[in-house]
Amino acid sequence: MGSKAKFFCFRCLKTFADDDSRLQHQLNCGVGKFAGKTELPPDGEVLAFRNHYALMKFPFTIYADLECFPQKVNRAGLHDNNNNSNIGEYKSSTTMYQVHEPHSYGVLVIDYQQKAIHKKIFFVKINLISMQQLIVGYVSSRLKAGRTVHSLCNLQLKYKNRAIPILTHNFAKYDSHFIVQGIDREIDVQVVPSNSEHYISVIFDNKLKFLDSFQFLPSSLSALIEEIPPDNFKIIPQIFEQDVIPFVSGKGVFPYDYVSSFENFLEDKLPPQADFYNTLNEEELSDEDYEFAGKMWDAFEINNLGEYSDLYLLTDIAILAEIFENFRELCITNHRLDPVHYYTLPGFTWDAFLRMNKTPIELLTDEEKYEFLEGAIRGGIAQVSKRFAEANNPMIPDTYKPEKPTSYLMYLDFVNLYGWGGLMKMPHKNFKWLDEVELAAFSKDLATIDPKGDKWYAVEVDHSINTHNDLPLAVDRRCITYDMLSDFQKKLLSNFPEIKLSKIEKLVPSILPKRNYICLLENLKFHLQHGLILKKIHRVLKADQAAILQEYIQFNSIRRGFALTKFEISFWKALNNQLYGKTIQNVRGQLDVRIATTRVTFTLLAPMATEGREQSNRPTKPAAVAAFPVAAFVAEPSPSSPLALNSAPVGEYDVVFPVVPSSMSLELVPYPHLSQGPSSHITSPYHHDTIDHVHSS
């Protein structure tokens, strides 16, 4: 009752101290991304490093992979096995090309000393319960302290949860589909979504946590392993003998389109080179790669194609473990944080910065200020180039004219742009609007204000331009309408009637007048120096600024200069680049996704999903529920099938029921050329006797 707020938004009931603020708010309230209530931190909230548990290296890490039979589909997008018709690769946005049926998966357990303590390959469809039972014996661990620690530190230096990390490469877009469909009983499932279809992490009963290594190392395994010198290998030599390491230190080849059933695994020789053709990518296998596959077959004394599949799977897992353990070692050695406590590289590098940072960073607690700064984030123009230029280059004899002046065309690239930007001063506290008196003084002294001083300014202005050349300033996002096109463009468009103008806003460099354009003071002064005419200053947001990222950026840059391998160079560069993206992360696009594994849970979540879809627009949207597969119909599920809702309608309905794969038999066979070490188990459906290899350490 004692609040000074007397003005209300009648749509969202947010209160304001003055009517101008309310009117400014109502320009956006209920429109697009601003449609709904936004929750912000409480006053006085400061951004600081709090994830102290990440300073502890997780005692066990599991690396996994799975292999599938690719099945062709008919024109209706179906094939004979209805249980798997919902998983596939898409050649385009409208055509299902293949359906993938899992036939095997493997796990490799690495302890905190980078020792391979367990490896096993299964020929069985995803069975989450058997995997949980397999590794439960490795959960327990004890930590000893050399000296007494503070009670607060002792409480902070403990694992946030005991979920064992399981890493697969490209989990979000591939493996996660099969894992979620493999749930066959009531179990607590938590997901960290990239969107309603792709999950970058799935956590089961707070015991198993699937992570996507691609979120940390966004490149192919074959490219990543080439950046690590064989002398730096720590995992691969524990699994394979020294004489065969050259065959397993790179990504192998496999005839995916040829192997479509377990019967193919009985074949006792390598298929012809033509059968390695990848129809999806329309790629043939090179003579060199086929010859290498033949040498690999002989070196490992492989008896049939099933054993070759085993080796291919085991090699992929070993390579993944090798790559990620090298990555973990770099992270822990230099930033003391174990990346398996995080979900993505941006999240890791952000926390690494916070741990090093000594400058207090205040969080925005005013929605109007938050939306104001959102309006200044528009994206970036990738290049600036002239439409036409002609060179008189003596190194091009066909066009060179000696009687004319020599000239060249140069393409200039700005290197380390993110690192350079991170060295600049940035706002970090005391965000406040300029009042009328301060705004008048700001307008008067605009030419003399130093944007690189201790104060930071963001301005909202109107401006126009009389003439300009090849570098239109003050780019903005807008839809291009037909009347904006030139006569030439309209004529060109008439020749292609199938091309329609996009209704999606794009970042456009133009010389059109700008209204309510938000930018930094430094940018505004640059614009004015190059011909823009300032019409009006609407608002100015002021804050204290400091080079808060400088120490972290320089720390990484210096170490990049001393890096000895391509892998290390890429690592240090990525930390700085990914930090930039984290600073402007669009939290409005995040989803809170829930998975229901029983009808009871489904019934409880359904109203929440509806409420979240109709009312919510927090920086994190609540109770949006999603699962696989995406289907435009409601089906009666079996009692064990996961049930789901999707926050966005799928076709006409919201309800989606995935199909649970059936289980398959499990058998074991020995594996040749495994190095003497920990227990090794290889399983296969094409060998009838069971042999368990156990080697003493």
Automatic annotation (TrEMBL):
One of its GO terms (molecular function) is nucleotide binding. SUPFAM superfamilies: DNA/RNA polymerases (SSF56672), Ribonuclease H-like (SSF53098). Residues 686-697 have a biased composition (Basic and acidic residues). It is an enzyme of class 2 (transferase). Residues 158-587 form the DNA-directed DNA polymerase family B mitochondria/virus domain. It catalyses: DNA(n) + a 2'-deoxyribonucleoside 5'-triphosphate = DNA(n+1) + diphosphate. One of its GO terms (biological process) is DNA replication. The keyword Lyase does not apply. InterPro entries: DNA-dir_DNA_pol_B_mt/vir, DNA/RNA_pol_sf, RNaseH-like_sf, RNaseH_sf. Keywords: DNA replication, DNA-binding, DNA-directed DNA polymerase, Nucleotidyltransferase, Transferase. Its EC number is 2.7.7.7. PANTHER family: PROTEIN CBG23764, RHO TERMINATION FACTOR N-TERMINAL DOMAIN-CONTAINING PROTEIN. Belongs to the DNA polymerase type-B family. This is DNA-directed DNA polymerase. It comes from Folsomia candida (Springtail).
